[in-house]
Write a structure and sequence with these properties.
single chain; alpha/beta; Rossmann fold; 2 domains; six-stranded parallel sheet; 15 helices; 13 strands; 43% helix
Length: 363
């Protein structure tokens, strides 16, 4: 299709934002004359991350549906109507030739408005269990880009393109950066290292399990790179300081994820779609702890897609305190298992996902 202006909508979490930025970057690389506008949700992390990546963004007043406290949804219809009104205004001003929805709160109003206005749109679904917004809009989409097989149970089969999740380009070269990573984190490049990532906000159950296992890590001489999220950062730093012979790097957020993966021998992580895709792209053994309250329990499905291929191990959230550190250390000690998990993980990575999506859109 002939396109000059591209609108990309979605967000709410890093799992939606980074694929969106990766697609925009691949399109820009293929055709530098393209104009881009991102549309996100007001107050969410995309309002900071997208401008940092060099793209313009506008926020909608949309919020997600609160499934745990239904009374908190009383204002949802008003915010949805305001968001739809603003979405139509954005389309009138920007006049996109194509809209791309990556899931998340802002994607729904924007793609609905695009459909009403006759603007072609495509969907990129990161998870192995499709989100409500994407399912509702799939029949009207031109293409549906997915990361997992078997998605025809959610979407029209003829529209599906299995290309993988677009991820940050620097992760593809992470393997060659071990020495650089050790220097950055102040660690020893020769020692086994556990990388802990709980998502952009951290993960309390994972953090508590790591805190409980710090002495065990110290005893075995294993190093730790620990992304805690903001709420747990101070507590984690204080706990790590009580184990002075434990080599560790503790931070609320790690921007240099290419170096974090380069340093890791095993990764402990939630099973968000982006994290799973990054782990595969980096070719790392992992212990996944799915967030049990994710919509439709999609994180468990994401994790099982790797477990079934013997590319990862799974520990349930409510068993993390007892089993997480034990499982990670046992895996590190079993070199054959560690290598086979890493090899299987790498085989599931799709390093050219963003470029292949861009190529499809620019035909």
């Amino acid at each position: 299709m002939s396109i000059q202006r591209v609108l990309i909508s979605g967000g709410g979490t890093g799992g939606h934002i980074y694929p969106a930025i990766a697609i925009a970057s691949a399109l820009q690389e293929a055709n530098p004359s393209l104009e881009f506008l991102f549309v996100g949700a007001e107050g969410k992390m995309e309002m900071e991350k997208v401008p940092k990546a060099g793209f313009r963004i506008i926020g909608l007043p949309i919020v997600g549906i609160n499934r745990q406290h239904m009374w908190k949804n009383l204002l949802f219809p008003i915010k949805l109507l305001r968001s739809l009104s603003k979405a139509f205004a954005i389309l009138k001003e920007f006049k996109p030739d194509l809209a791309i929805g990556v899931g998340g709160y802002a994607s729904g109003p924007m793609l609905m408005a695009a459909y009403v206005k006759g603007i072609p749109f495509v969907i990129q679904e990161q998870n192995s269990f499709a989100g409500i917004t994407n399912k509702l809009l799939s029949k009207k989409a031109q293409h549906i880009f997915v990361a997992y097989p078997g998605m025809e149970k959610f979407f029209p089969k003829e529209k599906i393109k299995l290309l993988g999740n677009p991820v940050r380009k620097d992760l593809i070269e992470s393997k060659s950066k071990r020495a650089q990573a050790a220097k950055f984190f102040g660690l020893d490049a020769e020692k086994s290292t556990v990388l802990v990532i709980g998502g952009s906000q951290g993960a309390r159950s994972i953090n508590l399990a790591i805190e409980k296992g710090l002495q065990e890590l110290e005893k075995t001489g294993v190093q730790l790179v620990w992304q805690t999220g903001v709420p747990f950062e101070n507590q984690a730093k204080q706990s790590a300081a009580k184990n002075p012979s434990l080599s560790s790097y503790v931070s609320a957020f790690i921007y240099e994820m290419d170096l974090a993966y380069a340093m890791a021998d095993i990764v402990i992580s939630r099973a968000g779609a982006l994290s799973v895709s990054e782990i595969c792209l980096a070719g790392k053994a992992s212990v996944l702890v799915p967030f049990p309250n994710a919509s439709e329990d999609h994180q468990t499905e994401n994790a099982l897609s790797l477990v079934r291929q013997q590319a990862a191990l799974l520990v349930k959230d409510n068993e993390a305190q007892d089993l997480l550190i034990k499982t990670a250390l046992e895996t590190l000690a079993n070199k054959n298992l560690l290598e086979s998990l890493a090899k299987a993980s790498l085989s599931m990575g799709k390093p050219k996902a963003a470029q292949e999506i861009a190529a499809t859109l620019l035909i």
